[in-house]
Design goal:
Layout lengths: L10 E4 L6 H21 L9 E6 L5 H15 L2 E7 L2 H10 L4 E5 L8 E8 L11 H10 L13 E3 L3 H9 L13 E6 L5 H9 L4 E4 L2 E8 L17 H13 L4 E5 L6 E4 L8 H15 L4 E5 L4 H9 L3 E5 L3 H11 L3 E3 L5 E3 L5 E2 L1 H15 L3 H5 L6 E2 L3 E4 L3 H11 L5 E3 L4 E4 L1 H4 L1 E7 L5 E8 L2 H15 L1 E3 L2
Parallel strand pairs: 2-3, 2-4, 3-6, 7-9, 7-10, 12-13, 12-14
Antiparallel strand pairs: 1-5, 4-5, 8-9, 10-11, 14-15, 15-16, 17-22, 18-22, 18-23, 19-20, 20-21, 21-22
Helix pairs in contact: 1-2, 1-4, 8-9
Length: 477
């Protein structure tokens, strides 16, 4: 049964079948064994290296699953620092702030309410995926016998309230001083009935308006009630329909900006003052300029599906563009390797060197607000010069033999331009023919994902017509 819930980057499944309290306890045991051993192997033997931070989201099943997880950790001898109901990025902060062996967040992120899961981080809040520890955790979880030989590890659970420290950390990224004395910056926040409904009031106060970062901020709240563990709309801001309430509210309230969060609030999507959704890759280019002004010549990491404008803007600003494989494991690794100050992913995850190379939805929001204050421009004005190319968006194609299709594409487009296999197959003919494309395999489904960009619509349509017959059946997914 454990095999049904262990995925490439986390643990996830429907509650209570297959993911239940007994399984959560087993996983807690496995997490403790792996995280404590990993810290010891790395030579970290400080007093906090038997401590594991545990947090949870607002789902109905999260309290009981969290309790079972913590019991499993203490069964193995780990000590739990229970930080309660928090956003996922809070866990990354807590692991570093308290210098712990790792952390576990009980959440199913953007999945429907019947789902739950766990995101595991090791020391320094480095992500744990299948290749970096999840396979071992699964193995350890499978070996514990709670029926005939239940372990008695003697660990303890300690409750910790870190909101004051977290607030100070997050708000350090917010600077509205250039708007001091001016009209309040007005923003709509759709918490999607998720953890932003807890973290935003904790960070900005229950009134949600006042003086922050040297200037005035007014927050218009949508879907902040997370007490029922249910959603008005799916908590996935990558689906345009889920962001429509934010778009409508921005126009209704004449707001300067809008933010729509996912369920565990580690990512958000931005809506400009005209009620238009901003592409996360285009936002990466805008925010890259902000960080390069503060740290000239630094590296900026970007998801390889991003618009070519990201690379061009980073170079124009004197920075070093670094392409990364898709996924937080690879993005965080690239930030560390290249000592990058900032990174952005098409999925709405934004990564910050001063946030332990980790992603944070609320920090991304603070930086966006800072950029608006510093430039005096609207979001649409900032995005307009970035949105200079035509993009297909990510298109899914159903096909059983994914490897054969990729081999066919490589053969068909051999010699067209630069080709690499950093993540799937990328063909770059931008300098010569004005287009580039990336085709990646889904980890879990018989799907190929195409991202295509061109300098003009005619070229985009022409190249798409070349690719689509080789990719299978197009699906809405």
């Amino acid at each position: 049964m454990l095999g049904k819930v262990f995925k490439a980057y986390d643990v996830r499944g429907v509650y209570p079948d297959p993911l239940n309290e007994l399984m959560a306890r087993q996983i807690g045991f496995g997490c403790s064994r792996f995280l404590l051993a990993d810290a010891k192997t790395a030579g970290d033997d400080g007093p906090m290296m038997k401590n594991i931070v545990v947090g949870r989201d607002m789902r109905k099943s999260s309290p009981s699953l969290s309790d079972a997880l913590m019991k499993g950790i203490t069964d193995q001898g780990g000590h739990v620092l229970d930080v309660g109901m928090v956003d996922t990025s809070f866990i990354y902060f807590a692991v570093n702030h308290l210098d712990c062996a790792g952390g576990v967040m009980v959440t199913a992120s953007h999945n429907p309410p019947q789902y739950n899961g766990m995101k595991v981080s090791k020391r320094k809040a480095k992500p744990v995926g299948e290749a970096t520890g999840l396979a071992e955790i699964r193995k350890f979880a499978a070996t514990v016998d709670y029926t005939n030989n239940p372990p008695q590890g003697g660990g303890r659970v300690e409750r910790r309230d870190l909101w004051d420290a977290y607030r100070k950390h997050v708000l350090a990224f917010l600077d509205l001083s250039k708007r001091k004395g001016k009209k309040a910056l007005r923003c709509v926040i759709d918490a999607s009935n998720g953890m932003a409904g807890t973290s935003i009031p904790q960070l900005f106060g229950k009134k949600l308006s006042g003086e922050f970062g040297g200037g005035s901020l007014e927050i218009i709240a949508l879907n902040f009630d997370n007490s029922k563990g249910e959603f008005v709309h799916e908590p996935n801001p990558l689906v345009a329909a889920n962001v429509q309430m934010t778009c409508d509210a921005v126009l209704k309230h004449k707001a300067d900006i809008g933010f729509c969060y996912d369920g565990d609030a580690d990512r958000c999507v931005v809506v400009d003052e005209k009620g238009k959704i901003v592409g996360c890759d285009q936002l990466t280019a805008v925010l890259a300029r902000h960080f390069l002004e503060k740290s000239p010549g630094s590296a900026i990491v970007y998801d390889l599906r991003s618009t070519k404008a990201v690379q061009e803007e980073v170079l124009k600003a004197g920075g070093k563009p670094v392409r990364s494989r898709v996924g937080h494991v690879f993005m965080k690794g690239a930030l560390a390797e290249h000592k990058a100050v900032f990174g952005g992913e098409l999925s709405g995850h934004f990564y910050f060197q001063q946030n332990f190379n980790a992603d944070s939805g609320v920090i991304a929001m603070c930086v966006v607000l800072t950029v608006l204050a510093n430039t005096g421009k609207t979001m649409s004005e900032l995005i307009k010069p970035i949105a200079r190319f035509h993009q297909s968006g990510e298109i899914n194609f159903q096909i059983e033999d994914k490897d054969a299709a990729l081999a066919k594409i490589k053969d068909a487009f051999s010699g067209y331009g630069a080709m690499d296999e950093l993540d799937g197959v990328t063909i770059d003919c931008f300098a010569k023919d004005g287009w580039w494309a990336n085709i990646r395999k889904s980890n879990t489904e018989p799907l190929l994902r195409l991202n295509l960009e061109a300098k003009d619509k005619t070229t985009l349509d022409r190249v798409y017509a070349q690719f689509s017959p080789m990719l299978g059946h197009k699906v809405d997914h």
